[in-house]
Recover the amino acids of this structure.
């Protein structure tokens, strides 16, 4: 008897038996309505296409993404954000096994690599935009600036900084230094992290690269072609680390930016880094938002889920097609 809980994940995602079990489940038309799977992607690109960006933040290569979308389109009803909003507002229920496709951060590779695949397969998608970044090339995500500074600085000797001693000898040392700093910075307020990384980049004598976020012109084109644009706050602030006034400012500011640049946005927000708590969700509710998307893994039963804390299934560079198919199963 196959025990899914005790087998290592890597073994599981290469198992033919598992493949057959999932294929049987995928052929089934049974299932409850309003069970929503939300896939979360960030960047779709070749690992070395943009060497200034951390390749571990890729969700998939263009070829892997195309295979995933072909599979999803064949086996699952892909719904729009508008359909999800309508179902939550007690409109028509979602078909069993519905999937919503979401993309966070609005990196340029969405327009270059993801959208052509989605468009030709006629799949609806929602793009969550941190609205302070388009057309602001000097404003960079701190994790991108940190990666670029650590991996390209001409300095090789160890260096003492506010964030501890940095080892920069080999490329492996640099990558380890980057991972260590990133895991520490992820836990602090976004603005403080940005300021610390800016100071560190200056000390390492590395100038910031223009940010890799799409321009408003590109976003307007995507919106006209059918991509749903929604809020990912303005500055990508971690909302559970800031005061309620700042939460309201980030949410209302980004809604106003989207309204000004691309038209009225849906009452929906993807929490930066998925971070939220009851206080933040309460602020969103008071502002009239209907859906909030986290990065907690799982499938949503819309009848019993808090719509301001919806779960998503994040796709990463190590998610092979079978791994993705496992995660879309109700028993997973
Ligand atoms: Zn994000």
């Amino acid at each position: 008897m196959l025990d899914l809980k005790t087998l290592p994940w890597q073994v599981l995602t290469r198992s033919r038996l598992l493949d057959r079990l999932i294929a049987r489940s995928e052929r089934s038309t049974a299932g409850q309505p309003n069970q929503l799977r939300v896939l979360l992607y960030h960047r779709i690109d070749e690992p070395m296409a943009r060497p200034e960006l951390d390749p571990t933040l890729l969700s998939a290569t263009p070829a892997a993404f195309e295979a995933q979308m072909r599979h999803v389109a064949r086996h699952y009803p892909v719904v729009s954000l508008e359909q999800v909003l309508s179902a939550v507002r007690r409109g028509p229920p979602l078909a069993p096994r519905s999937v919503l496709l979401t993309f966070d951060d609005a990196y340029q590779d969405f327009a270059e690599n993801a959208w052509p695949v989605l468009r030709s397969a006629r799949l609806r998608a929602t793009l969550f935009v941190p609205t302070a970044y388009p057309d602001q090339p000097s404003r960079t995500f701190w994790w991108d600036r940190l990666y670029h500074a650590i991996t390209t600085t001409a300095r090789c000797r160890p260096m003492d900084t506010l964030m501890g001693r940095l080892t920069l000898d080999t490329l492996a040392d640099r990558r380890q230094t980057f991972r260590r700093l990133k895991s520490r910075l992820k836990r602090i307020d976004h603005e403080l992290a940005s300021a610390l990384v800016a100071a560190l980049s200056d000390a390492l004598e590395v100038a910031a690269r223009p940010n890799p976020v799409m321009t408003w012109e590109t976003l307007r084109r995507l919106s006209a072609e059918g991509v749903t644009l929604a809020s990912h706050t303005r500055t990508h602030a971690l909302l559970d680390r800031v005061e309620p006034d700042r939460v309201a400012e980030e949410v209302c500011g980004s809604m106003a930016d989207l309204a000004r640049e691309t038209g009225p946005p849906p009452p929906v927000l993807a929490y930066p880094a998925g971070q939220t708590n009851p206080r933040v969700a309460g602020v969103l509710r008071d502002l009239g938002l209907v859906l909030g998307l986290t990065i907690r893994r799982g499938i949503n039963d819309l009848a019993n889920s808090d719509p301001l804390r919806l779960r998503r299934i994040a796709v990463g560079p190590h998610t092979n097609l079978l791994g993705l198919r496992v995660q879309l199963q109700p028993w997973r």
The mean pLDDT is 91. The CA atoms of residues 103 and 127 lie 5 Å apart.
